[in-house]
Records
---
Amino acid sequence: MAELQEVQITEEKPLLPGQTPEAVKTHSVETPYGSVSFTVFGTPKPKRPVILTYHDVGLNYKTCFQPLFQFGDMQEIIQNFVRVHVNAPGMEEGAPVFPLGYQYPSLDQLADMIPCILQYLNFSTIIGVGVGAGAYILSRYSLTHPDTVEGLVLINIDPNAKGWMDWAAHKLTGLTSSIPEMILGHLFSQEELSGNSELVQKYRNTITHAPNLENIELYWNSYNNRRDLNFERGGDITLKCPVMLVVGDQAPHEDAVVECNSKLDPTQTSFLKMADSGGQPQLTQPGKLTEAFKYFLQGMGYMASSCMTRLSRSRTASLTSAASIDGNRSRARTLSQSSESGTLPSGPPGHTMEVSC
Ligand code: BEZ
């Protein structure tokens, strides 16, 4: 039984006009693999899963998810759900550096901490939203606790362990690059890094000067030592819930996500390849991701179309017809978004859809 410890921290969240403040509380729970902190937004909604997020390496829940969850149109979605944002151990703001020789949990062990969090909060089911290492952790959790996962949004997932070629490349890169540069190469495309946009500068600065850089390196090592998830189309090792796979069309993990899509159950999986979004679509394209998320939830029966904004309703109407035309094609399971007009049609989970924009 995990030891429980509670830390209450009041967080600021900007309010929209007419909105009442939500409960926000940060907790910390002791687990067999060390303590883990998480921030809970909102009050329990009966008979609804919670949205549980897990961030990527080099980030924490805020630097990974704040632009998405604070996006204007996202508010009408998330007001219907409690959100539990997990920080990987040592990644929370102000986290002390782990002592030398500290054994950082493997990604599998990080996944095994999630039941302690849910038990502590008395929540039974989740819709997981994970990026990179976080997407891997939520997938692993879903394989071991399939009955508690109602849906998964997996951004930049690489379900494969590093092969020897990857290791050789990793070692070579390590000879000339610092840990922050290697992590930036995992988060952003080479094009984005050389373009050095304000976003890249901000994240480069945050990671390079992070007071917990040693902890970040430990999470990075765990990510690089991950086991293969061994997904197998039609096999026993697969995700059983509706899944939305997301990747930017120039993201470093594009090939891995494409391969992952080929291994998952096509009746349960939607694949969203986002144009012009780089490596972190949740930071650069929160609007499109919000819309895709809304349709994903609708497909699961959680967002009645009456909850949608007038704008979304009209876009859905036009795109539903586009999708049905494309639905006659046998190939389609890909949701491609253009930078101009890309949105997703609603439909049952796993429905074959392609939107050509
Ligand atoms: C949320 O409302 O869930 C949220 C707010 C700030 C940062 C991340 C998430």
Note: The first strand starts at residue 4 and ends at 5.
---
Amino acid sequence: MYAKKHTVVNEDASNSNWNELTDVIEEALKQHCFSMVYQPLISVQSGKVVGFESLVRCESPTFGVISPCDFIPCAEQSGQILELGSWIFQQALLDLKRMRNQGMENICLSLNVSPVQLLHTNVYEQLMSLIIELNIPPSAIKLELTETALIHDPQTICKVFNAFKQEDVQIWLDDFGTGFASLSLLRKFNIDGLKIDRSFVNGIADNNDDFTLCSAVIAMAQRLGLHIVAEGVETESQLQILSQLGCDVVQGYLLGKPQTLEQNLSLWS
Ligand code: C2E
Ligand code: CA
Ligand code: CA
């Protein structure tokens, strides 16, 4: 039912690792070992926080800290992302409500959404009922999907997006430039904004190709009336170049690492 993400060299070894990770996720779900952290998105012009991206964390009692780069693809393949994803939405929206109530009234929340969630659950009903229950303006929610997510089942994804857009929920393309970057997709899917992948931002100050790519993406976004966020900003020189290129908003270790709700409240509110 779920597409396998990784090409494996040693099928047996990889399957057993995968099964083991599925068990670890199962245990973590049962024992509530997942938590959320939030990384600030900063306006280049004002230097103020305009939003946060929610990022899930897992600390397994048996294996310690596991990276989402490992457990998310596994949870997508096993279908566990459906249960995990619902929990993430609920926790992240509750935390957004707290931030908005405690001095950050206009803050937005960027939520990572897996294509498996879009195709196999009633994500729309789930999120909209939370938004209504918590009285959060729908425009404060930005759903982040990767380019590859769009090509799984474009028709269904398009329908779900349109339903969200009707309610003013924003749709963003994550890791832009790393996947199937067809420009016509931007039009077809009625995207609100792009996040330039950190692999390009990383080289912007000393690699000509990365600089050219970032400046072209920013110029294109401006022409198309799309918002843009540069991810993975780690140095002052990267920030300065992005600012000169007209990038709206930046995110990265230079501006703030992902931290717990409490840490963010005491830092920013
Ligand atoms: P992503 O959505 O591209 O998230 C950004 C990743 O870059 C995060 O890694 C963040 O900690 C990291 N990052 C941010 N700024 C910097 C920087 O300046 N330098 C470097 N080197 N890294 C930076 P993280 O939290 O490990 O998440 C990895 C990926 O796992 C995410 O990539 C996303 O694809 C997935 N993920 C994380 N949380 C969720 C979630 O709640 N739901 C879903 N479906 N996927 C998630
Ligand atoms: Ca993201
Ligand atoms: Ca990203």
Note: The chain has one domain: 35-55+80-268.
